[in-house]
Amino acid sequence: MGKSARAAKADAAKRAGEPKVQIGAIPYRRRPDGDVEIMLVTTRETQRWIVPKGWPIRGLKGHEAAAREAMEEAGLVGDVGKKPVGRYTYWKRRTRDFVLCKVRLYLLAVKDQLPSWPEQDQRRSQWFTQADAADLVDEPALGTILRSLKLDKA
Questions:
Q1: pTM here?
Q2: How does strand 20-30 pair with strand 98-113?
Q3: In the chain, fewer beta carbons within 10 Å around the N or the C end?
Q4: CA distances in angstroms from 122 to 20, 41, 77, 119, listed in the order given
């Protein structure tokens, strides 16, 4: 398939309302008492709690893009899983409209948080218990994924 045919197919898919793909990280750590925590960040505009996520990055595999989003949005570095652990669909709120997005999620075992990072002044970030993180996110499907993860064995 030539470039123009691929472009036409992509345009047709957009017009048909197919979801746009996003990549997300589920950053987690184990506390000294053995309990697991998940870091959530706030959205820039509405300050809702979410996992770090964004658009695919040209030249990076999905898991690499997920790790990059966690670093940019929360200053987190660690070991990222190469296979998605879940997917969910949501309506992304924009200034004048909404866009349907499908998010592929990758686990990130957090090793450290950098002293500064690109979006530090645009978002809040906080560690929560797994149950609290699942309850705090707005998207029900994301909450279900967070609740069902077997992070005690990760």
A1: 0.85
A2: parallel
A3: N
A4: 24, 10, 19, 5
Domains and CATH numbers, the chain: 20-153 (3.90.79.10)
Distance from the Cα of residue 133 to its chain's centroid:
13
pLDDT at res. 151: 83
Collect all residues with Cβ–Cβ distance below 8 Å to 38 and sequence separation of at least 6: 26, 27, 28, 51, 127, 128, 129, 130, 133, 146, 151
- The whole-angstrom distance between residue 111's C-alpha and the CA centroid of its chain comes to 18
* DSSP code per residue over 2-45: -HHHHHHHHHHHHHTTPPEEEEEEEEEEE-TTS-EEEEEEE-TT
Lookup: tokens for 61: 């595999």
- Amino acid (1-letter code) at residue 99: V
SS3 of 134, please?
helix
In this predicted model, what pLDDT tens digit does every residue of 105-120 receive, in sequence order?
Answer: 999 999 999 999 999 9
Q: Are 9 and 18 in contact (CB under 8 A)?
A: no
Residue pair 104/23 in contact by the 8 Å Cβ criterion: yes
Phi, psi of 75 (to 5 degrees): 70, 20
